[in-house]
């Protein structure tokens, strides 16, 4: 197994390296990277590892910035001293979240989780990481911005909604644009791992989910980022597939 450790504390990186070797001496540590800048340089010039161990607060930025800038497919085990990042980490290919100081048995369990996931996918003829970058998903939208045209990257889209026969694109910085596509058409154009149709009139990004509440009559109530004035629900008939999507 080839791994990369993203960690800006020397002793933490060294300890994790030693723990990994104790668990499996065939684990190959390809790089120890202390900053987002060093990560961007490394991942742009090297094949992805099988698994990433990542601290969150690095010497320059939070490691989430790396995964926002690059479409990294490798699964991630987060290692941090803080628990407030758990929901955000869950959205970033995370298969586990370990709090420092890292317990050897918990680390062993996290690696076992990775190995079990890989085994299940191989039985289905799949891999944790595709051999080639995924192609065919819509990468940007051309929108009208006043008297000008603007290009919005799909990664900047928080959610789509339909209202009175119009479709709207809403970005994470709460800019709203009318688009030509219907939500049905968008379902065929977007990566289903990142976007989910939660109701007849709303299609949301995983990144846009802030909080999830159980609600009356089997529905789920969502708090989104950016927030909406009206209440947002996962319709009852879509709740099972929504939970499966979150847990995939």
From TrEMBL:
Entry keywords, A to Z: DNA-binding, Phosphoprotein
Limits of the Response regulatory domain: 2-115
InterPro entries: CheY-like_superfamily, LytR-like, LytTR_DNA-bd_dom, Sig_transdc_resp-reg_receiver
Residue span(s) of domain HTH LytTR-type: 141-248
Coiled coil: none
Source organism superkingdom: Bacteria
Keyword flag Ligase: no
Protein name: LytTR family DNA-binding domain-containing protein
Annotated source species: Xanthocytophaga agilis
Source lineage: Bacteria, Pseudomonadati, Bacteroidota, Cytophagia, Cytophagales
């Amino acid at each position: 197994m080839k791994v990369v450790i993203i960690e800006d504390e020397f002793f933490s990186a060294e300890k994790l390296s030693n723990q990994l070797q104790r668990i499996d001496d065939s684990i190959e540590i390809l790089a120890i990277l202390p900053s987002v800048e060093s990560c961007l340089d490394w991942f742009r010039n090297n094949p992805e590892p099988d698994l990433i161990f990542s601290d969150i607060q690095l010497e320059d930025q939070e490691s989430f910035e790396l995964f926002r800038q690059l479409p990294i497919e490798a699964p991630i085990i987060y290692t941090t001293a803080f628990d407030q990042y758990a929901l955000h980490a869950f959205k970033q290919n995370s298969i586990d979240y370990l709090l420092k100081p890292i317990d050897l048995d918990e680390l062993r369990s996290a690696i076992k989780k990775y190995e079990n996931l890989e085994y299940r996918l191989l039985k289905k003829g799949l891999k944790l990481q595709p051999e080639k970058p995924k192609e065919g998903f819509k990468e940007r939208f051309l929108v009208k911005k006043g008297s000008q045209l603007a290009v919005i990257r799909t990664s900047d889209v928080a959610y789509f909604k339909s209202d009175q026969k119009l479709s709207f694109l809403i970005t994470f910085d709460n800019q709203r644009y009318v688009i030509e596509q219907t939500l049905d058409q968008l379902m065929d154009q977007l990566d289903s791992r990142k976007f989910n149709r939660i109701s007849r009139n709303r299609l949301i990004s995983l990144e846009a989910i802030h909080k999830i509440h159980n609600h009356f009559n089997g529905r789920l109530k969502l708090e989104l980022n950016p927030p909406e004035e009206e209440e947002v629900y996962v319709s009852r008939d879509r709740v099972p597939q929504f939970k499966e999507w979150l847990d995939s």
